[in-house]
Design a protein that fits this description.
This protein is mostly helical. 81% of the residues lie in helices and 0% in strands. It is built from eight helices and no strands.
Length: 218
Amino acid sequence: MDLIRLLRSLEEFLYELVGWLVFYPRTLWRVLVRPGEVAIYTRREFAKDPEHRFADAISPVLMLILSVVLAHALEMTMRQAPLSVSGPLGKLLFSSEQGLLLTRSAVFCIFALGAALSTLWRQRLPIDRDTLREPFSIQAFLACPFVLLLAVSQAVGVEARGWGAAIGLAAVVWYLWARTRTFVALNDVGYLPAAGFVLVSFLLTSALVLALGFAIVT
């Protein structure tokens, strides 16, 4: 019986893995070129029962985790030098592959969380587990191309810093554009006010991430 359960678990895992190979690139492309439609799709999916959500895509948080893993794999492939840190917490978070992976996941979750919280504040909704789930999931989708583009920027920067900086700038511009399109799609607001709101939210979140990073590495 234990062998049968093991084989069935292996079957489910392999089927899920094959599904990732199909749905991950398709979902990533949809987010990259039509972020507003993906946001509406996500809202529509959350109106369904949990077992029926995202049947034709990868769930947002899993999508973000896979993107972080791919970005980390790219960094390992380029054999980049580890970050030099002096503090004990910094050594714990940056001295191992597991620590780097968890740290990168936490950073981009902070970006998604900051965007979700600012959305709830703008909509004057209470912040709880139920209200936070939908906007956080939408922002997790949007963070996926941002993660990968920044990883490509960092990898290219090892050989050609000019191109690396250009790709990094393109990543930030795309991310701001995608969040703005999403905000306009989900709220009754014009493009310019939405862009201003998104920019302020992004700058505040970036300042928080930089402050935390500086506190950790020193």
